[in-house]
Amino acid sequence: MIKQFFFLVILVLFQGCKTYKRSFGITHTNVLQNNVCKTYRLDLSNQNLNEVPKGFYELQALKMLNISGNKKLNLETVFQQIQRPEKLEVLILDSLDIKELPKNIQRFVNLKHLSLNNNPLLDLEKTFELVKFLPISFLNLQHNNLTTITTQITKLSSLKAINLSHNQITSVETYQNLGKLSSLKSLWLNYSQLQNLPNEIGEISSLKNLYLEHNFLKDLPKTIKKLLKLNVFHVGHNNFDALPIQLIHMPKLILLHINNCKIKTISNDFATSKISIKGIVLNNNQLSSREQEKWKKEFSAFFIASF
Hints:
CATH architecture of the largest domain: Alpha-Beta Horseshoe
Shape: elongated
Largest sheet: 13 strands, parallel
CATH superfamily of the largest domain: Ribonuclease Inhibitor
CATH class of the largest domain: Alpha Beta
Number of helices: 6
Strand content: 5-15%
Distance between the termini: 22 Å
Helix content: 10-25%
Number of domains: 2
Number of strands: 13
């Protein structure tokens, strides 16, 4: 019964980690003339379009639009052709080689999710200034050759989740600026070539979900303990040789993924201390069979303890 309870808790946590996969019904890949009033999700990505399909202007209920990869499209024209801009909540503009967004993106007064993946020429300072009054809660900036995020990000006061994976962000300034976003709950920094996590990670005190997979981390800074609200921590595929002792002092941490590292030892403090962790994934580490058996017993009350 206890394990079932925690399983339900984790399901709830995962719901909070969703990005732009929202339930707006069927995703259409073209405009159907007999369905313009019921088309909520439209995916026109990678269709080599010069202009939007016939009937696009007639769409009355569009909530999600994906025009990724269509580099010949004029974004200003496309945005102007959306008849009910107040309906749009999700906008995916990946791989468009854009340098700046058109000003009429401000028409989308209820825009919550914005994806700008793989647009390395994009002027982010202008972008943040342009969308600062929109209620954006999720921002995708993967694959943009970023090394820092400037103070302009702090203008996005409604931001709850940001994906910065597949960049090379190492600047202390970035973590300090993210720490000023009081609503930020989820942060992705996977595949970021991180060798060290700066002390300033502790300044992002509102975080509940943190993803640092596929980096080169060997340890965690002591300041990680300042993430008092963190529930879910994915830090697998790194270079840890021991389970970081700092994890003991994180009072809300429930689920830990630290698989595919080089962990050979786990401190006895994890057995003698009162820890909040209720689920741990340790697959593909270097624990001996004896160590694995020992910790399977110690973690037997967890809803998941995978070795």
